[in-house]
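User: Hello! I'm new to structural biology and keep hearing that structure can be predicted from sequence alone. Could you demonstrate with RNA polymerase sigma factor? Please show me the input and the output so I can see what each looks like.

Assistant: Of course. The first part below is the input, the amino acid sequence of RNA polymerase sigma factor. The second part is the output, the predicted structure written as tokens.
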Amino acid sequence: MSAADSRHAIGSVWKLEAAKVIGGLTRIVRDVSLAEDLAQEALVAALEKWPSTGIPPNPGAWLMATAKRRAIDHYRASERNGRKYEVLSRELQELERTPPDLVTALDDHIGDDVLRLIFTACHPVLSTEARAALTLRVVAGLTTDEIARAFLVPEPTIAQRIVRAKKTLAQKQVPFMVPRGLDLAARLSSVLEVIYLIFNEGYSATAGENLTRTSLIEEALRLGRILAELDPNESEVHGLLSLMKIQASRSHARVGASGEPILLMDQDRTLWDHALIRRGLDALDRANTLAQRRGPYRLQAEIAACHARAAAASETDWGRIVSLYNELAAVAPSPVVELNRAVAVSRYAGPHPALELLEPLRADPLFRNYHLLPSVRGDLLAMLGRHAEARVEFERAASMTQNEQERKLLQERALASANAEQSVQ
């Protein structure tokens, strides 16, 4: 195996094992920052040794044992941590006495540790941006460079967010645990929010030359699958996983040959990944069996399922979609939900009532620089034949977006409205 192939193979192993190793170490040392440092030292050791010895049968156990040795060295240097040294030494000795092929099977903490790590990285004491960066770093195993490129911000910015997030967790003495009772619902909401934020940034990139970022979609789906496996009885977890799978199924149909966006109603549905749709619908069925009351992710998954079940755009059940948006607006009211509800209403009842729904949003500070509001208004005005007004809205939307492909599409629609205006005159 060449050096490049070896590094690639080790990188793949690390992506699979990083969360387990960091989670297990955090359980022991009670410090996310130190746990990641120790895990990184183990990774460096693997990069030095595995190219010549080969990847061991149980790479996760090897990384954990190596990291624990580094931890023992760390605590040995300080007499104040003698008790922790004894605990680590005892655990390491037990690990070394256990046959390598049984280590993972006998480690009851693996699943709990990853779940605790996710909840710790997504603690509400951190900003949403910091939660996303820390989650991608310690749970998904991405480098700071990869995270920076994904969100199109300088690498030092991401590095600072991660460092500050770790310091905040330490200063606030955030416990390494899955919360219970009422705290669990609040913290779970934060976890789901971060995973969906990562997915949405991959699904519709806020800036850059490409409409999508496949790596972020894949990481969000992976995080969703991990969470669903570790917390299998939570309806909203399966609802989010269903939503992401159904939306991701459209990936190949959303982008044209030149990278241009293709709107949902214009997509070739034969290009949708129907196997992924089936898995998404299965996740939705699972969510529906777990709880009677529908939360925001289940409702959004139900909306996505309406589109997925329609063989053609003309067969879309817009009446049901409007009803689901009405329910979503009651469960999780937000200006963005209102904007999407207006789009559904326009398809079901026409542009006039939809425009009325948009009026209150025009004064909302959230939409001051949000390109989708003028974009939707442009659509509705064009449907009414008010092409001059539609052109202005499309031009405004194009000036707001930071994504090159979306800007091109909006400029084309502004031009089409201008041509339609001239033809009427």
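User: So the tokens describe the shape?

Assistant: Right, they're a compact way of writing down the 3D structure. Reading them back into a model, for example: Residues 1-107 form one domain.
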